Amino acid sequence: MTVLCLTELDGADPADASLRALTLGRSLGDPSLAAVVFADSATVPASALADYGVTDVYVIEPSALEGYAPQAWARVLAGLATETGATAVLAAGTDRGNEVLAHLGAITGLPMAANCTLVTPDGGRTHRLVRHRWAGLLLEDAVMEAPVALFTVATDAVAAVPAAAAVAVQVHVHKAEVAEADLVVRATESAGQTGGVSLATARVVVGGGRGVGGADGFAPLEELADLLGGVVGVSRVVTSEGWRPHKQQVGQTGTKITPELYLACGISGAIQHIAGCAGAKHIIAINTDPGAPILAHADYAIIGDLHQVIPALVAALRAR
Ligand SMILES: Cc1cc2nc3c(=O)[nH]c(=O)nc-3n(C[C@H](O)[C@H](O)[C@H](O)COP(=O)(O)OP(=O)(O)OC[C@H]3O[C@@H](n4cnc5c(N)ncnc54)[C@H](O)[C@@H]3O)c2cc1C
User: Fold this and answer.
1) How many Cβ atoms are within 10 Å of 115's Cβ, its own excluded?
2) How many beta carbons lie within 10 A of that of residue 262, not counting itself?
3) Are residues 123 and 235 in the same domain?
4) Of 150, 235, 275, 277, which alpha carbon lies 20 to 30 A from 249's?
5) 135 lines ligand 1 (CB under 6 A)
6) CATH number at residue 286
7) Measured between alpha carbons, how far is 220 from 37 in angstroms, rounded to an integer?
8) Which residue is closest in CA terms to ligand 1's atom 18?
9) For atom 6 of ligand 1, which residue has the closest CA?
10) Residues 123, 59 within the same domain
């Protein structure tokens, strides 16, 4: 009996969100935990996966299927689920994970539950789930009845925990069988990653909202993020205005972040923004308005103009 986990990579390493999904997958207790990786077999991080209890890695090489193609990836997972007799197929609750698993549900006719925080097998075809609803503002208890459980794992709710002991891992190069129709939607190029740290996994995020004032106002935030070893995240107003790209958006319709420190600058704290940053360990708000809703979520607040406060912080950090 096998649990299959679509595993995304962050550079050469397994993505943090996928390690969280693998941790949940391991807790299901099946003897085999298999990672499905779309990558070159020469660079697949097999030993890092073994640390998380992965017994088998199914690699789909670029020569067989190049680039991101959600329906084709789902078709591959459907084939592997049958081949391995999988009891569950899961993925991280990332944009890709949710998209591919939704396609898998459509292909197989099986139910799919997104953004689970807990999954417990309850004998035979039954799994008990707890999952995020309303962008994590509500937790729902649910029961899934299906021969193969399909679900994604909320990216900010399950810690990535290595297995007590690494296991021997087998790498299988899997021959993908995809039809032309599965490739109708396909990413043919993707912009290169600009930095080493991703927004979803950064330990420090410096957030900028409408209060930053415009695209040109982000240089001091970038500088502060650099000094703190973090990255910049933004509110939706900022992406809607075209000041920054959507991949930097924090919130219900953006990325959910779980940093040690979130510095929210010129952000009011709308509920849809909080849905993305509530997993931060500490929040410091910089805002001119002492009544801004973000203050109710902040551990500390600086009531002031970010255009003065951030340069002062940068200067103080440089002086150290
Ligand atoms: C379906 C839906 C999904 C959404 N998803 C998201 C999402 O994923 N992420 C998200 O962020 N939003 C999302 N929104 C939008 C959300 O409701 C808010 O409109 C948005 O978060 C507000 O962005 P903001 O805080 O930057 O702007 P504002 O609400 O305009 O707040 C600006 C803040 O800056 C402060 N300020 C102004 N000047 C300065 C200064 N010089 N120094 C310091 N402070 C200053 C102001 O006091 C104010 O508090 C969504 C909305 C909907 C309806």
Assistant:
1) 23
2) 29
3) no
4) 150
5) no
6) 3.40.50.1220
7) 38
8) 270
9) 272
10) yes
